[in-house]
């Protein structure tokens, strides 16, 4: 266990210091403006209570909506949070090692790309239409009418369906060499098999 933690810490430190040490990264982004930096700091302060406390997130209304998505994480949604407020993300993205959960990113989703980017430097991803089940499993589906009342593989009850979505990740709890707004993060690869 300690060796795993050491390896992960080394990767985190390399990523965190790469830009300041002058090391070129393949997807380096220009420095954020002061307004964006202040907004990201506010988001980090607002979500600090969830950083290593998944139980707190669940108590506050977040429920699992995906299994571990490789190079991303487990997604937990609070359906009561709507719109864009950098301090109130509707989705928290975690990784897990054994019984320990670590918040790595915040996420917002929309049915179409916003006319105005929510933060300077925003980069978008996507998530196809899907039926989601209460155990966090999901099945791609273009129509809610095709969603089963239970997942045929896991037996979990149906939770909700959504159309194709535009996604926006903010990696403020785990360094990402692809950029703070990248969709995927190679540094969470060690958690893919957890």
Descriptive labels:
six-stranded antiparallel β-sheet; alpha+beta; 194 residues
Concise summary:
This protein is an alpha+beta fold. 19% of the residues lie in helices and 23% in strands.
Write up this protein:
This protein has 194 residues and is α+β, with helices and mostly antiparallel strands. It has a domain of 127 residues. The chain contains three helices and nine strands. The strands form two sheets. The chain has a six-stranded antiparallel β-sheet. It has a three-stranded antiparallel β-sheet with strand order 7-6-8, with no helix packed on it. A hairpin with a 2-residue loop joins strand 3 and strand 4. The longest helix has 17 residues. It is globular. The N terminus is likely disordered.
Layout: helices, strands, pairs:
Blueprint: H1 2-18, H2 34-47, H3 54-59, E1 63-64, E2 74-77, E3 91-97, E4 100-110, E5 125-127, E6 130-133, E7 138-140, E8 158-162, E9 165-170
Antiparallel strand pairs: 1-2, 2-3, 3-4, 4-9, 5-9, 6-7, 6-8
């Amino acid at each position: 266990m300690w060796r795993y933690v050491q390896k992960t810490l080394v990767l985190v430190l390399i990523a965190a210091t790469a830009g300041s040490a002058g090391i070129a990264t393949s997807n380096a982004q220009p420095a954020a403006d002061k307004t964006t930096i202040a907004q990201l700091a506010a988001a980090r302060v607002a979500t600090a209570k969830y950083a290593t406390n998944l139980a707190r997130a669940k108590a506050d209304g977040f429920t699992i909506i995906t299994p571990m998505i490789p190079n991303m994480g487990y997604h937990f949604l609070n359906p009561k949070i709507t719109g864009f407020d950098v301090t109130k993300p509707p989705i928290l993205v975690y990784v897990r090692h054994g019984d320990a959960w670590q918040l790595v990113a915040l996420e917002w989703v929309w049915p179409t790309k916003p006319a105005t980017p929510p933060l300077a430097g925003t980069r978008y991803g996507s998530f196809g239409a899907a039926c989601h089940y209460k155990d966090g499993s999901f099945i791609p589906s273009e129509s809610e009418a095709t969603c089963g009342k239970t997942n045929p593989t896991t037996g979990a009850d149906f939770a909700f369906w959504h159309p194709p979505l535009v996604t926006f990740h903010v990696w403020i709890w785990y360094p990402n060499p692809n950029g703070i707004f990248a969709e995927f993060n190679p540094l969470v690869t060690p958690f893919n098999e957890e």
